[in-house]
Specification:
175 residues; Protein Transport Mog1p, Chain A; 3 helices
Length: 175
Amino acid sequence: MFARGIEVLALTAALAAAQNVYRQPAGLYSLPLPQGWKVSSTTPQGDVHLLGPGNGAFFGVSYYAKLDEAPDAIDAYKQRLLAKTIPAHKLLKTANVQVDGAPATAEIYSGFMPDVKVYAVFRFVTVHAGKAGFVMMQETETKDWDRWKADLGVIEHGLRFARVEPDGSFTPVQQ
């Protein structure tokens, strides 16, 4: 229990230190950027990809609209990405978590990335909000997971997303 308290204090301090904030242009979400992190790419659909200092870690957010029309879209995306990046992946853990006060599911996978010849950890966090959803993906080499865990936690726990109504409409996050 004591170790968990130290993790929470470290995360709180790191979140307070993260002064840069990325705001998705349409107001779908915002998230803190820990020191040295940068936006590497965005898409018109609302996705953003972040890279940690030295490109040692990755954090991505993808937005899915109209999940009522394609309820398996998020799972299909995760499986395609895992099959492409870590063909022989293994699910290590699944947990119920909270993201910006909403219930979410976290899954941790590990495996060998043949393209770059390293072992990696992938963490997917899925948030369903009405007819829409968000997927957060975190990635780093297995040997560096502990090094990047605090920064990845700061981004995940600092994410604020638009309020999504049951009809799929949303109220943008404040700019």
